[in-house]
Write a structure and sequence with these properties.
The complex is a heterodimer. Chain A is an alpha+beta fold. Chain A contains six helices and seven strands, in the order ααβββββαβαααβ. In chain A, strands 1-7-6-2-3-4-5 form a seven-stranded antiparallel beta sheet. About 6% of the residues of chain A have low confidence. Classes of the chains: A alpha+beta, B mainly beta.
Chain lengths: 212, 353
């Protein structure tokens, strides 16, 4: 009898734990959906596509069918990387990072700020490399260091609260570096205060260096 | 009509694997000498194309890992197993494992780690090590395969880029932000004991950015360097004595050396940019330092040496180049890989190096 009770208790704990995880993911999904309105996202995507088309036209290349993309893939410290790839089964935010060295990037993940491989040109289905138009190499490099110094900060699931510096999400981290250091706002008018990774591409303050 | 459609469908299903060029039936170990790893970082999906040495025969097998391996790092080979890191999905990187393929059976083993975003692994005897950086703290974690015990070294600041097992020591390449305007970072070689005690650190900034590609013999370890500390392209091989850490520099005529092999008393060095995977040249350097450069007319991104041939794998094809015949292309095979997968490593599992 005691064994049966223990088994039932164990099963109940598992059910509760699974439900909690599902609830948490659902809550994050709904938070994402509430902030990043589908119509606004479509409009932003169109704007980014127009900017990308102009970039490709200048480079006189069309990315269709090309594996390596158009332009020079960023490897200079402080260049910004953006992907619109969806992460299946969680929050479809895309992702953003800032180049730290030729072969490494700084990025905010769900569990904190890490350094990873600078391989988005191969590992991602879509990728933009952008530079802040007016910034010098050393200013961009300093922005990369600023991102890396945001240590021990948890992931910011409140996408609208971009004024906080106690937690970050990926595109907020990159945006905050240029905002705090140089007073430049890479945010666009879409989604209120929230910063979607694609806004870093669509911003009038950035120039595309690479697109895949 | 219905039966005709059915026949067409059955024919399509039968022909599909042949179009892809690799069978998907049960993996036959006898017909495998090396594998080419294709992986995804936004779903848990990896496919390995296992080839026979002449690449006539190819078998495709799926594995449930995201971001398994990377061409930036050398595959760790302890003679019995090949070790790789499956990082996990790109915005969490929380798989927290090192995995190994048994070279004899191709069986998979997994080793648990505490930290996310593992960057590089190394193995000394029964100890598997992995390095990562999280919130400005660098960890080297050690997992003992026999006792299943773990321990770790941690250090705030800097950036532990890679670790390499050198006999019973761990070499760690470290980048330090020093606030200097002259260089973005200083580069150090840290030497740890196998029990993670820091024994030595050497400033190697003047030599440049050391790749995680190396060859070691009894006396020395050789690293390639493709960029100096200012990100300028260079062609350098760093030779470090295992005994006293004395450093010598060899220069290559071609810039951006990356993979380094030693075959028939000669160094074989590929030259390409590992970030863009652009570059088609290979140099062969003999003991006297004479260097011959060959253009393979194929972008190099993941390479290996097996059975006297340089293997070059790409996203859509693999080719073999005979080393003794002045890098003459002797075989080529095309394959089809899904757009969601990218090339990571070549796994040499045969016995004919």
């Amino acid at each position: 009898m005691k064994k049966i009770k223990m088994t039932l208790l164990g099963m109940l704990s598992v059910i509760v734990a699974v439900s909690c995880v599902r609830f948490s993911v659902k809550a994050q999904e709904s938070s994402y959906d509430a902030v990043f309105d589908e119509e606004e996202l479509e409009a932003l995507t169109e704007r980014v596509e127009l900017k990308s088309r102009l970039f490709r036209a200048r480079k006189k290349q069309n990315t269709k069918g090309l594996l390596k993309g158009t332009g020079s893939y960023p490897r200079r410290k402080g260049n910004i990387l953006v992907t619109s790839d969806a992460y299946k089964n969680l929050i479809p935010t895309g992702h953003a990072a800032i180049v730290y060295s030729s072969n490494s990037v700084v990025e905010a993940l769900a569990n904190g700020v890490v350094k990873g491989k600078n391989n988005w040109n191969t590992s991602k289905g879509t990728c933009w490399g952008v530079t802040v138009s007016w910034a010098s190499n050393s200013e961009e490099a300093a922005a990369s260091d600023w991102c890396y110094r945001q240590i021990g900060k948890p992931y910011n699931y409140n996408y609208l609260n971009t004024s906080t510096r106690s937690c970050f999400y990926c595109s907020q981290l990159v945006w905050a570096a240029f905002k705090d250091m140089y007073g430049v706002d890479l945010n666009t008018s879409a989604f209120g205060n929230a910063i979607h990774p694609l806004e870093l591409v669509g911003s009038g303050e950035t120039t595309i260096l690479y697109q895949k | 009509m219905k039966s005709k459609r059915m026949k067409s469908f059955v024919l399509f299903v039968l022909v599909l694997p042949l179009l892809a060029g690799c069978s998907q039936s049960k993996l036959s170990r006898d017909k495998v000498d090396f594998g080419v790893v294709f992986t995804s970082d936004n779903i848990y999906k990896t496919e390995i194309l296992w080839f026979e040495k002449n690449i006539d025969n190819c078998q495709r097998k799926k594995y449930h890992y995201a971001a398994l391996g990377t061409h930036f790092n050398q595959v760790v080979d302890d003679g019995k197993e090949l070790y790789l890191i499956p990082e996990g999905i790109f915005n969490t990187k929380d798989t927290k494992k090192v995995v190994s393929f048994n070279k004899e059976t191709l069986a998979l083993s997994e080793y648990p780690f505490e930290h996310i975003a593992l960057n590089c692994t190394a193995v000394i005897n029964d100890n598997v090590y992995a390095v990562n950086t999280l919130n400005d703290i660098n960890y080297i974690e050690k997992y003992n395969m026999k006792t299943k015990e773990s321990s770790q070294y941690k250090q705030k600041g800097d950036y532990f880029e890679s670790i390499i097992a050198v006999d019973d020591k761990l070499f760690t390449i470290v980048k330090k932000d020093n606030g200097s305007k002259n260089v973005d970072y200083n580069i150090y070689l840290y030497v740890f004991s196998k029990d993670l005690v820091l024994e030595k650190n050497i400033d190697i900034t003047k030599y440049g950015q050391v790749n995680d590609k190396y060859y070691q013999d009894d006396k020395d370890i050789y690293f390639t360097i493709g960029l100096d500390s200012f990100d300028n392209q260079v062609g350098r091989i760093l030779k470090i004595s295992k005994k006293d850490y004395h450093i010598e520099v060899m220069t290559t005529k071609e810039k951006m050396p990356f993979d380094i092999y030693f075959y028939n008393d000669k160094f074989i060095i590929t030259h390409y940019d590992p970030v863009s995977c652009e570059g088609t040249k290979v140099s062969i350097i003999d003991k006297e330092g004479n260097e011959k450069i060959y253009n393979l007319h194929m972008d190099l991104c993941s390479t290996g040496i097996y059975d006297g041939k340089l293997i070059v794998a790409g996203k859509d094809k693999i080719a073999l180049f005979s080393i003794k015949d002045n890098m003459k292309k002797v075989a080529e095979k095309e394959y089809k890989i899904g757009d969601d997968l990218y090339l990571s490593n070549i796994l040499l599992v045969g016995n004919n190096y």
